Amino acid sequence: MTAADVRGADPGDGRISTPSAARVPAWSAAAAATPALPPLAADRGPAVPDWSEVVEHFREGLVVCDADGVVRHVSPVAERLVPEVTAGELLAAAGVDALRGDGPAEFTHHGRRLRVRPVALSGHRRCWYVEDVTESVSRADALLAERARSAFLAVVGEKLGNPLHPDRAAAAVVRLAVPTTADVAVLVLAPRSGRSRWWRAVRADDQAPVVDSGVLPVPALPVAIEAGLSGAEPHELDWLVEQAAEAGWLPGLGTSGAVARVVPLPGRDAPAGALLVARRADRWYDEADVDLIRAFAARAGAALTTALLYRDQAEVADTLQASLLPVEPAPATGVQWGTAYRPAQAGMRIGGDFYGSHQLTDGGSVFFLGDVSGKGVEAAVFTGQLRQCLQALHRVESQPGRLLKLLNDALLETTQAHGQGRFATMVLGVARPHRDGGQTLTLAGGGHLPPLVLRESGDVEVVPLRGMLIGVVPDPRIGEVTVRLAPGETCLFYSDGVTEARGGRRGDEQFGAERLLNAVAGCNRMPAPALAERVEQVTCDWLAHGDHDDIAVLALRATGPAGRAPRHLHAVPEPAAAELTREWSA
Hints:
The protein is of the alpha+beta class. The protein is 33% helix and 25% strand. A hairpin with a 5-residue loop joins β6 and β7. It is elongated and about 130 Å long. The protein starts with a helix and ends with a helix.
């Protein structure tokens, strides 16, 4: 029962009624000040309890003062909460400031949180209600603190969900740690190549934290950081502060006026780093603070681990991509090479088209351009296998037809062993120079598109080269043809990413053979690099940024006796190409 339960009781009739604003305070104080109520008359009904005993069980303590401020009654609860208040003495003599005001107050007294509220009584008397709210305030504070921690960790999860670069993730970690968990936060990443990167955020007044970074060799790392990087959590707080100060990581914080903690950041097999947090000694790290730092470190560790894994995978991908990218043709006597390459997936930089060349011991050059089935990484890996086979096989066989059949056998063995079922189209040739500066090309075709020859006269010829796919059957039919290039003439090889490019006004029309012929007609005086670039450019213009297959172009130009191609460019006309198209189609 509380004081509110009996504030409506009337000592005259012994009944409990609804209190009014005028009667509640006056009667409550009077009842509290009365030692015992007289027994009621028999005709007034059954006896009521002693009201002084009832008041003793109120949750609130009662202090009643007369008009002169002398304490006339102190309930047992009030005696326990404010023992300085004594009946018969002035209330002011108790020295409790909160009992001198005219309104409600909340204060800490003897380690407890008290709430007092005065109520005016008749005759200028006053009653003070004193309530112990320590537990309710503690619960409210704990709830607010938990909400603040949850909100902080939610922000951490959101902010650390995007960075995929270790440097940006580390900077975000220390920036988020200040000022919620520290005035200074230092993150040290796990060592790499004998060195550790560190990032630090320092609290700035009413501004965003200032972030800087540096590198330390492993022997120079503080012992506490080494312990954190090994997964331990050092607890020698003074020792931590001294080491952090010696490392120069605590600007504005002295060793005697700061506290610090070190927690590891969880990683896959080992900690991804160690986090040092420090702040002024008047903000001591209690157990709740340490739990929050550990939860923060767990999220930071997950973000850093993801970023580090992404970095490692990116480095592996870059290395593989560099090894799988088409290699520029090797220099050859009397030959000028021109190449253009655009993979279907621009972000990967690799695809299924390839080209290249190798020098022969007799002064000639073996060259090739091809297209493997599929796209992306798998096609690029198969392309790498094909190129490695060619690099080995051209040393034992230089005749194009036989070399292409050897390559077919090697690819069949590889695809059957791995169950890939991939194949390729390819043009493989051998170029041998003449004294007059011309070139003789011996070509072998494996199901690839026919090359084009740009004659000195400006005519464009379609080389009738056919053949079967490479890597499908054990003994494919390989087409062979010989082409003679006079000085200044060019042979052009390309993949189906050129002719099958879809675009135009409707976006679904193929570029086709006729447009390719129109694009190269009149380009006979162009250097080989410019010709290859032109073919790529007109194809991409046709696509208008749409999706496309891998595009590869290889141009071989006979440079003439001086070994140099003409240095000037020739304007590109737009001749009719219907006759050339009919020849190609035939």
